[in-house]
Amino acid sequence: MRKPIIAGNWKMNLNAQESVALVTGLKRELAGVTDVEIAVCPPATLLTAVGSAIAGSNIALGAQNMYTQDSGAFTGEISPLMLLDAGCTYVILGHSERRQYFNETDAFINEKAKKALSHGLIPIICVGETLEQREAGITADVVSTQVKGCVAGLSADEMKKCVIAYEPVWAIGTGKTATTKQAQEVHAMIRSLLKKIFSDNVAQAVRIQYGGSVKPDNVSELMAQEDIDGALVGGASLKVDSFAKIVKFNG
Ligand code: PEP
């Protein structure tokens, strides 16, 4: 049985005061939740403040990105050791905005995933097709190439720890959600690919989140799908009310 995981990707939003107010509200609203893993992923400058604010609660800390090296002359980059030091459990890797604006490739994301795992951080590996690719009928090809590239060389144990986030690029921040059928189809395809690459045991263990305009009013239907094990939430994770409702999708 896979435990659902719902994570908020704050992207480049909120200041220290707003972020502490947000997690203070979330702690209050989500105090009794034990059947869902909850994470918030603030910008790097807020990790420590948010980490302190959620210490001892059922909300875990995640980062939005990470570099492949432990330390050294890499101006502007943040290492896995720094993320651990700030109290992170998760790190989002290969978000479509990083692929699009910072030219991140599957090979680079793969390197980051291996590094994160070697330090005990759990990677949330993002994949997803653009609108042009969906309309060209190549969604399955695109997403399988991304998954294969990003998980290449991982051991079965490492793979089991990873979370994959399927985020159709055309649904991110646009208000357009993939239909539950479209989402489930890709999730099932990713799981069968993991079975082929690793084993059925691995495929059944890996949690696959859906991301792309997830809101309180569409989360339950998405979560009811067999292969959807959680959500990566952007815009709706910036407000206590909407993120709390999403986490409590079970009612
Ligand atoms: C995201 O940033 O990963 C995302 C899914 O954003 P939104 O929920 O705003 O579409």
UniProtKB/TrEMBL annotation:
Its EC number is 5.3.1.1. This is Triosephosphate isomerase. Homodimer. The keyword Cytoplasm applies. The keyword Cytoplasm applies. GO terms for cellular component: cytosol. It is found in: Cytoplasm. The gene is tpiA. Involved in the gluconeogenesis. Catalyzes stereospecifically the conversion of dihydroxyacetone phosphate (DHAP) to D-glyceraldehyde-3-phosphate (G3P). Pfam families: TIM.
